[in-house]
Amino acid sequence: MWFTGGGGGLRKLGRFAAIIENEMSNSSLFVRYMSRERAVNVRKINPKVPIQEAYTISNSLYDLFKLHGPLSVPNTWLRAQEAGVSGINSKTHMKLLLKWMRGRKMLKLICNQVGSSKKFFHIVYPDDPQAELDTPVAATATEKKKQGGKRRSK
C-alpha cells in the first residue's frame, strides 16, 4: 500500500540528493572564496626606519642580490652580515625591508618546488624589461615567417 508506484520514490530522492549536492558544492566554493583574507598591500609596508635610510639599506641589499644572484632569506641575512650592511636591526627587520622592496618592485619572490618541499628565493627585476620583451617577440615573429613560407610551398 505504501510502496505504490514501483520504486519511483527512490528515483525522486536521487534527483533531490543530486540537486542538494550541486548547490552545496557551489555554495562551498563561494564560502571558500569569501573566507580568504585579502592579500597584503606591500606598497604600504612601513620599513620602521626613515625613508632615506630605508632607501640606502635597500640599495645595499639590491647590490647584494645583483652580486650573488637569487638568495633565500637565511642566505640573505648571512650575506648582509658578511657585507656589513648597516641599519638592519634584526633578521625580522630585514624581512620587513625585503617585503618593502618587493612592494617597490625592486625584488621579486620566486618559488622552487623540489618534491614536497618549497624553497623561496628573492631575485632582482631586470634592469630593462622592454629589451627582454622585444627580443623573444622578434624571434617568434621571424620563426612564424619561416614556418609560413614552408606551408605555402606545399
Key phrases:
5 helices, 10% strand, mainly alpha
For the largest beta-sheet, the strand count, sense and barrel status come to:
2 strands, antiparallel
The percentage of residues in β strands lies in: 5-15%
Strand order in space, largest sheet:
1-2
What level of helicity do the residues show? 55-70%
Tell me the number of helical segments per DSSP (H or I, 4 or more residues long).
5
CATH superfamily of the domain at 44-124: Winged helix-like DNA-binding domain superfamily/Winged helix DNA-binding domain
Which runs of at least 5 residues are low in confidence (pLDDT < 50)? Answer: none
Distance between the termini: 77 Å
CATH architecture name of the domain at 44-124: Orthogonal Bundle
Element-by-element helix/strand order: HHHHEEH
| Beta-strand segment tally | 2
Gyration radius over CA: 28 Å
Q: Which geometry do the CA atoms define? A: globular
What does the average pLDDT come to?
78
For the record, what CATH class of the domain at 44-124 applies?
Mainly Alpha
Summarize the structure.
The chain contains five helices and two strands, in the order H-H-H-H-E-E-H.
